[in-house]
Design goal:
Blueprint lengths: L3 E6 L3 H12 L1 H8 L3 E7 L3 H8 L4 E3 L2 H5 L6 E4 L6 H11 L3 E4 L2 H18 L3 E2 L10 H8 L5 E7 L2 H13 L3 H11 L7 H4 L2 H15 L9 E2 L7 H9 L2 E11 L4 E11 L11 E8 L3 E8 L3 H18 L30 E11 L4 H11 L4 E6 L8 E8 L2 E2 H12 L9 E5 L4
Length: 436
């Protein structure tokens, strides 16, 4: 059997894991793919590290463009990351008729439309299972396993760094800044954690899942993104008293008006399985009309979990290599001429429930004024906590959970509530999803 020759671009954490797993499980993988998968060249600026990892088993170069132009290479695996040189390399590989495997969620979410169009033109495959949720095969589940379903919504904990931070804040009762430093010390968070804690990484992944679930173009630029940097440990405590846990959740829903595409801290009932996903783990819930709710759980990052997804894509390419392009699984699950151009709803039009916390004077009539304002916006209250003020204090916290309402209605109510003389702080608002 003629091996499939692979050009590996980048041999850092995931690249090294891919090389290691492919070498260790070579016989098992060949039994599944039908042909040996051989990394014949590795491109990395750190050639010394590349030689150390590969132990002289393949050619090493610091010129990635020579790999994507090499006529002997069948598949290019891009593990560089970002949308700069990685984009140029992927497009050049496709231009040269090479299949591509990538773990680059930013590239696919931001430039997937262009990449897939060129791949169709050149009749090559672009596989990206490793771009979302590490070793969890969520792309294959959405694209193939759930193909009989009208998918209604997808919700996921899809960033391990933020889930670790929120788990520790709840467990230890410490503020965000303290727990972030601990996450950095343990290697769960980068020195610059912006992409993780501000929700950008999760939004890249959610954009990809949304496009596959609903058969639309990539719409990363229209996603609503809110991170966890401003989250107060007091709200995690109050949420727990009400029977909820706070997670950074990616949510995409198909509605009559369009598609919701949003990432933000979210209260989830603690009885839901996904609410109990702790530490750096990931989980994705998918609701289909036929199958109901399905849950996918596992490690969302790391060398070998992500390598597992990269190699699964390589095996898929090996199996489909001789098939005609029109018989291959479409990149985004739906046939290219059947894609829908659905609007992405602004956050003001999203309908969900809300958690509200406000600091008020401890005197009669305050709660009545607040509930009157909410009623004026057709917002009803589902649950409430009014904390007893500490001795000698004349202020207290009120925490409210609302039933579902449109975001613009809650915005209008918040504006009026904050103008009340008895309200002594800016109102804290978090969204709530029942995920029933």
């Amino acid at each position: 059997m003629k091996p499939i020759n692979i050009g590996l671009l980048g041999i850092g954490t995931v690249g090294g894991g891919t090389f290691s797993v492919l070498r260790r499980n070579d016989k098992e993988i060949t039994r599944r793919s039908g042909r040996p998968l051989r990394i014949s060249v590795v491109a990395d600026r750190n050639t010394a590290r590349a030689n150390e990892v590969t132990r002289g088993e393949c050619r090493i170069t610091d010129d990635a463009f020579s790999v994507v132009s090499d006529p002997k290479i069948d598949v290019v695996v891009e593990l560089i990351g970002g949308c700069g040189v990685a984009k140029d390399l992927v497009l050049k590989a496709i231009e040269n008729g090479k299949h591509v495997v990538t773990a680059n969620k930013a590239l696919i979410a931001s430039h997937g439309n262009e990449i897939f169009a060129l791949a169709r033109e050149k009749k090559v495959m672009v596989a990206f299972e490793a771009a979302v949720a590490g070793g969890i095969p969520i792309i294959k589940a959405l694209r193939e396993g759930l193909t009989a379903n009208h998918i209604e919504w997808v919700s996921g904990i899809i960033n391990g760094t933020t889930n670790f931070i929120l788990s520790e804040m709840r467990e230890r009762g410490e503020p965000f800044d303290v727990v972030l430093k601990e996450a950095q010390r343990l290697g769960y968070a980068e020195a610059d954690p912006t992409f993780d804690v501000e929700g950008i990484d999760a939004a890249h992944k959610l954009t990809i899942m949304s496009a596959i679930a609903f058969g639309t173009r990539m719409n990363f630029g229209k996603a609503y993104i809110e991170g966890i940097g401003q989250l107060d440990s007091a709200d995690i405590k109050y949420a727990g008293q009400l029977g909820y846990r706070i997670k950074l959740l990616g949510v995409t829903k198909r509605t009559v008006a369009g598609i919701e595409l949003r990432v933000h801290p979210t209260l989830i009932p603690e009885k839901r399985l996904i609410a109990n996903v702790e530490g750096a783990m990931n989980a994705v819930l998918v609701k289909g009309d036929a199958v109901g709710a399905t849950l996918y759980y596992g490690k969302g990052a790391g060398a070998e979990p992500t390598a597992s997804a990269v190699i699964a894509d390589l095996v898929d390419i090996a199996r489909m290599l001789t098939s005609s392009p029109e018989h291959r699984v479409p990149h985004l699950a739906f046939q290219p001429d059947a894609m829908l151009d659905l609007p992405i709803l602004p956050i003001s039009e999203v309908v969900t429930s809300y958690y509200l916390r406000l600091r008020v004077e401890d005197k009669p009539g305050v709660l009545a004024d607040i509930t009157r304002i909410l009623a004026g916006q057709l917002i009803s209250i589902n649950a409430m906590i009014q904390r007893e003020p500490d001795e000698g204090e004349d202020q207290t916290d009120i925490i409210l959970l609302t039933h579902e309402t449109r975001e613009k209605n809650i915005d209008a109510a918040i504006s009026k509530i904050e103008s009340l003389p008895a309200v002594k702080s800016e109102l804290i608002r978090l969204r709530l999803e029942e995920l029933a």
